[in-house]
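Complex 245.
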Amino acid sequence: MKKQISPGALLSPVPAVLVSCGTVEKPNLLTIAWGGTVCTHPAMVSISVRPERFSYPLIKESGEFVINLPGESMVKTLDFCGVKSGRNTDKFAVCGLTAVPAAGVSAPAVAECPVSFSCKVKEVIPLGSHDMFLAEIVAIEAEEWLFEESGRLALEKMGMVAYAHGEYFSLGQKLGSFGYSVRKKKPAAKSAPAKPPKKPADIPSGVQRRKNSERSNSAKKKKSAPKKTGHKKTGVSHPVKGGSR
Ligand SMILES: Cc1cc2nc3c(=O)[nH]c(=O)nc-3n(C[C@H](O)[C@H](O)[C@H](O)COP(=O)(O)O)c2cc1C
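Predicted structure with flavin mononucleotide bound:
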């Protein structure tokens, strides 16, 4: 039998991402878990941000932000950016991260994150504790090493991070793929040449490959080579357990 509990922000798992804002010269970062895809065409996302965050006016006034997907090796950085404020901490510097130009917006991207979504705010909806920024994705940049020879973006290669009920997880075993429950098994192939795989309709097109050389060149402009994993500089230990999001 199910037990009824009070309503709360329990929907899990959700992505936990690093949202960068401000400018390349004066960047800030915050961790966001209350966000997600809201529309396929145009490609849109939402992030919900408390007005008291240092990042809030930076996003509201510029109308821009970048969603950066961290790899598993960056979880400590992800947590740190969600418990320290840019008001009194330069999170890029402390975490050894590099702010680089992002395609289509003046908000910076995080060089160390393998995928970034450049977003332009379309609407701000006050909801209560949080205001929801509805934004259009104007560009997606992904590291070259995430692409297979067929051109498929293999996001699973980056070690995606999920957030569930106050804890961070890596993704487990693959269980199936879109539409597999109704897909007919192909008859054993004779000698016909293999067709390239079909692209699911809901995967956004126009993802730009981010060449390692391009990325490191722009990163070099800012400062010396970044570290792949966060917190080597500070060795920060987990500062807060289950803070208010
Ligand atoms: C896992 C995690 C998820 C979070 N999700 C959100 C969120 O969705 N919205 C929000 O306003 N704050 C969220 N926070 C809290 C902010 O990231 C945190 O208050 C941060 O220090 C704000 O930084 P800023 O003051 O530099 O903007 C989250 C924190 C963590 C650790």
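The pocket of flavin mononucleotide is lined by residues 16, 28, 30-34, 48-50, 53-55, 79, 82-87, 130, 163, 245 (CB under 6 Å).
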